[in-house]
Design goal:
Length: 146
């Protein structure tokens, strides 16, 4: 008889542990992208040659190579410039992050709303930029004249 009580007790404990684990998992997935991604993203920017000027949305961010933190919530225009070279320009495009869907899986609408409001629901692409700058045609023609 003692074995039956122990088995019932064990099943009861296991049942409670399963509920607890499900609750912890659901709570952990709330605002999932906000906790995993944060509101900014690191983008590594390199150029050949180095020491080119980095401008994002018209704001100077220093020289290459560099890792910059950029707001995830919107698209950005990135420009790399160096005297004697053609400027390079590209778009950093936001796409919905895998982590955002954690809220959808557990049906947690407030978590999805938080991720949307903070911009954490997005990842920016490309994540790394490595550019080989091209010499300007003026620079090439000046060298030929010398």
């Amino acid at each position: 008889m003692t074995d039956n009580i122990d088995n019932k007790t064990k099943r009861g404990i296991m049942k409670h542990l399963v509920y607890l684990a499900a609750f912890v998992l659901a709570a952990g997935l709330n605002s999932c992208a906000t906790f995993i991604n944060s509101t900014t993203q690191e983008i590594e920017i390199k150029s050949t040659p180095e020491n080119a000027s980095i401008t994002i949305d018209g704001k100077k961010f220093g020289l290459t190579p560099q890792i910059v933190n950029i707001d995830r919530g919107r698209n950005h225009v990135l420009k790399i410039e160096l005297d004697g070279y053609e400027p390079y320009e590209t778009q950093l495009t936001r796409k919905i992050s895998f982590w955002f869907w954690g809220n959808a899986l557990n049906g947690f609408i407030p978590g999805m709303t938080i991720d949307m409001f903070t911009g954490s629901m997005y990842n920016l692409f490309p994540e790394n930029i490595s550019v080989e700058l091209q010499k300007t045609k003026e620079d090439d023609s000046n060298r030929r004249r010398r």
